[in-house]
Amino acid sequence: MARRIGILGFGSYVPKRVMTNADWSELVDTDDEWILSRTGIRERHFAADDESTLDLAAHAANRAIADAGLTPADIDEIIVASDTPEVYTPDTAAHLQHRIGAGEVTAYDLGGSGCAGFVLALDIARTRVHMASKRVLVVGVELISRLMDWTDRTTCVLFGDAAGAVVVGEGEAVRAEILSASAGTDGSAADILTLETGGTRRPFTLAEARKGGQHDIVMNGREVYRHAVRRMSEAAEKVLELAGRLKADVSLVIPHQANLRILETVREKLGLRPEQVYVNVDRYGNTGSATVPLALAEACEEGRIAQGDLVVLTAFGAGFHWSAAALQF
Ligand code: ACO
User: Fold this and answer.
1) Residue 204: predicted pLDDT
2) Rounded Cα distance, 284 and 296, in Å
3) Which of 122, 124, 139, 264 is the most exposed place for a label (fewest CB within 10 A)?
4) What is the pLDDT of residue 195?
5) Are 222 and 246 in contact (CB under 8 A)?
6) What's the CATH number where 26 sits?
7) pTM value?
8) Number of separate domains in the chain
9) pLDDT digit string (tens) for 286-302?
10) Among all residues, which ones are annotated catalytic?
11) Where does ligand 1 bind, in terms of residues with CB under 6 Å?
């Protein structure tokens, strides 16, 4: 009999502090009308000063483990997808393993895959379960507010902080079987959306730190928009094809929440009705690799997903990287 590999439990965490468009308009030259009409974002949550990437990740991880009816001791491997790690090295996964008390299990980060990181990590987890029959904790987490330039209106209004997590395993306890997954990369676009500071091309020196410690996210918004729409819809179609399913079979698509206009164009390209695409970008903004697991956990909590539903995850980010998965609940 074919093995059923998939998600055993879901969890998410959003920090309490809310930053509205009106709040941003007091800090930079912007207004609610511009942000809402261009992005669909009304507000986003930012971590408190005493919260770190690890805190966000640990909350989401503990919730996913509890939701799976497990304890941290049941986890055999940890993958953290993040472009905003706890420290430069070692990775957030090592810190997370210790924080949640998971035992000396393999733990590693998938960094630099931008907003596509979580779904790619989910695919890796599926393979690891297949190869080694493990229970893998997969976390998508970003604390972007601490690394972005708070004076650059063209990027700062887009992002928020959050974490989402799932536990991947196999057997009877699987609540969402991973039917198929796919990912791709176009490295020729590496400079279109990038955060260079901290790498060897542009080391984060003491002099730079004294200037205020801010990094710059460099982004060609229009190019990102164009590629995001194309890659996210193509990736969704690809995983349906791999799963032997049709667009007509899809109950819900959970896309990376970059902005509402991208989501609407993806929906039109896929020929879906508005209620078939999950949207929460209005409340959280773009939380990078956390958007998909956060939306997935929220959709489950809200009862948007029923037993028997076919759900497609599709994501796109810096790299450019894209990734998608088809889930059978
Ligand atoms: N408030 C007011 N005005 C602004 C703001 C702001 N926050 N930001 C930019 N503007 C101004 C610009 O300076 C420009 O003014 P100018 O014409 O006088 O030069 C004007 O608005 C238009 O700027 P554009 O960049 O052309 O605006 P556009 O309509 O392309 O929208 C946006 C920009 C929202 C970034 C859009 O390109 C987009 O959604 N791109 C996708 C990028 C994205 O989602 N990135 C997220 C990270 S990547 C990812 O998740 C996949």
Assistant:
1) 76
2) 14
3) 264
4) 85
5) no
6) 3.40.47.10
7) 0.96
8) 2
9) 999 999 999 999 999 99
10) 115, 256, 286
11) 30, 34-35, 38-39, 115, 153-154, 157-158, 193, 219, 221-222, 224-225, 228, 258-259, 286, 316-317
